[in-house]
Amino acid sequence: MVVEQAPEAAAAEFDDLQGFLDLVEADGELRRFNGVDWHLEIGGINEALAQKRGAMCLFDEITGYLAGYRVSSNPFTSYRRTARVLRLPVDLEGVELLNAYRQKIRDIRPISPVTVPTGPVFENVITGADVDLFKFPAPQWNELDGGRFLGTGTATVTRDPEDAWVNLGTYRNQIMAPNLLGILANPGKHGRIHIDKYHRKGERAPVVVSVGHDPTVFVEASYNVGLNTEAYAFGGWLRGRPMEIVKSPIYGLPISATAEIVLEGYVPTPDEMPKMVEGPFGEWPGYYAYSALGETPVMVVEAIYHRNNPIIFGAPHVKAPSPTIFAVPLSAASIWDDLERVGLPGVTGVWRLGAWGGGAGGFFTVVSIKNLFPGHAKQVASVAMASRAGAYGGRYVVVVDDDIDITNAEDVIWAMGTRSLAHEIDIVRDVWTSPVDPMLSPEQRASAQWTSSRALIDATRPIRWRDQFPPINQFSRAKATEIRRKWGLE
Ligand SMILES: Cc1cc2nc3c(=O)[nH]c(=O)nc-3n(C[C@H](O)[C@H](O)[C@H](O)COP(=O)(O)O)c2cc1C
User: Fold this and answer.
1) Which of 76, 170, 173, 318 to mutate to test the pocket of ligand 1 (most atoms within 8 A of CB)?
2) Residue 1: pLDDT band by 50, 70, 90 thresholds?
3) Are residues 285 and 344 in the same domain?
4) If you measure from the C-alpha of residue 215 to the centroid of ligand 1, how many angstroms do you get, rounded to a whole number?
5) Secondary structure (DSSP) of 85-115
6) Does residue 331 have its Cβ closer than 6 Å to ligand 1?
7) Is 345 a member of any domain?
8) How confident is the prediction for the chain on average, in pLDDT?
């Protein structure tokens, strides 16, 4: 029997960044800009489109650079592009998209990558004194950035020196010198743990940084897939077939064979490490909060591999609304799963509003429930606050009834304003936050005391007297539809 693949599914697959851009263009969601300046112009255009949840951008003929040396940005400001990379139906939005992802991840079966002898990533190989990171049109994205950031949507590959487990992580990369690159892997991130382990043994840490690749690789790298998941196996599962990898020539680390630009080298031991200022850079909370002298690991780049006409994969954060829509289904799904794991019934949705980071991190978490028993809402809020994806860099956890559209900030604020009491908000102090939290005082920042507080807000109708809670001043759906139809208002 011949099984025919659905034409849509066949056409929708992609193996590299160019393939994804072609798909996005066919969807009518790509904007091309030629003749732009890497200094602030790319960043300004990116911000304008990101904040209105607009098109993905492709910049070419960048001032001072050869045509073909391109920058892409704004990959995931639409639900459609997010669904494309998660390989979900493209017409899903909001909580429906999130639920489809939860269904999908329930059956996760990571698919190991296959190692191939070579790939397009080696079309150009630059080593030794020829290494020059300024060869690529890395933008100065924002007005107060400390320099040019080649890496914003990266995949940094490191290996644990103890058990050889390989990790992919997205950590920003500032160009510090023609052969020096900052790697801001914050303490606790896997890439940083690996680097520190080498350093404790007095050794240099081998590292590979991919700054252009299939967006599937970016999703895996910027999402906390979980320890022990083989690198590239999450991406393989997302796309339903193995990712193709090649071994990096110097340290044998796995690289996507179709990557656009990959840098290989090492992070010197702390004694050898050049003391340089990294940052500032526009971060996910919407500020320039973190910049430090000699804190950020600096990589010595020994080799550059790149395709002909390479494309930088740019995914810088901008002030809210946050551009990485894919982070919402991923982190909200993880909070929702945690709520179910502890046996909490009645959850009908989880969402994040305002600013959020990658797989975790977000100041405002909203959970909707069917309120089932006294204390239900506060229990939900406490678990959401403490779950892995909800804990990092949070501030407010709001629980609302299931008639609220949790993807709509106006609706959530209406519920808070009308169904909660300020004196009943519970505060939890001294909880985990991110070094880019703008409310860290200068003293906390200096002493690495990165904690903040949480407000748990029950904005559900009070369960003890909800039958007497005033009815909502809004037409019933049936009556509204009848009138709107009659008068052509739909
Ligand atoms: C666009 C984007 C940029 C990010 N930049 C950084 C960064 O500079 N430093 C960092 O520690 N985490 C950053 N993150 C978050 C990490 O990528 C995320 O926590 C990921 O899970 C890290 O991998 P790990 O958990 O294996 O360490 C970023 C996430 C995104 C989506």
Assistant:
1) 170
2) very low
3) no
4) 15
5) HHT--TT--HHHHHHHHHHHHHT------EE
6) no
7) yes
8) 93
